[in-house]
Specification:
With about 110 residues, the protein is mostly helical. The protein has a two-stranded parallel sheet with strand order 1-2. It is globular, with a radius of gyration of 17 Å.
Length: about 110
């Protein structure tokens, strides 16, 4: 992860109305979660790559398999040692997983 990433995240929190926006997002979560099964059903046939960090404490890696069952064509890639932001924490591994997935889709 970039050395100044934490500082940059903190700076974003200083933008006016950020707290209010975050509160609004959090209040919408119950409604969003209720709508999730229908939304997933609509995209079931879309080839999907799920990338998780093995040390993700925000959304546990055990969530990947139940979510994977919502798709007809899915790959699950758990990046060992990564947390919730594998694209920042382990960009080389993340990018390799995405490239491999995209190549497999373009050369069926």
């Amino acid at each position: 992860m970039e050395a100044d990433a934490a500082r940059n995240y903190a700076l974003a929190a200083m933008v006016p109305q950020t707290r209010e926006h975050i509160g609004s997002v959090m209040r919408s979560w119950p409604s969003d979660i209720r709508g999730l099964p229908g939304a997933l059903a609509e995209i079931r046939e879309v080839p999907t790559l799920l990338v998780w960090g093995s040390r993700d404490h925000a959304v546990l890696p055990t969530s990947a398999e139940p979510l994977a069952k919502c798709f007809d064509q899915v790959e699950v890639n758990i990046i060992e040692g990564a947390g919730h932001l594998p694209y920042e924490e382990t960009p080389d591994e993340f990018n390799a997983a995405v490239k491999k997935f995209l190549r497999s889709r373009s050369n069926p």
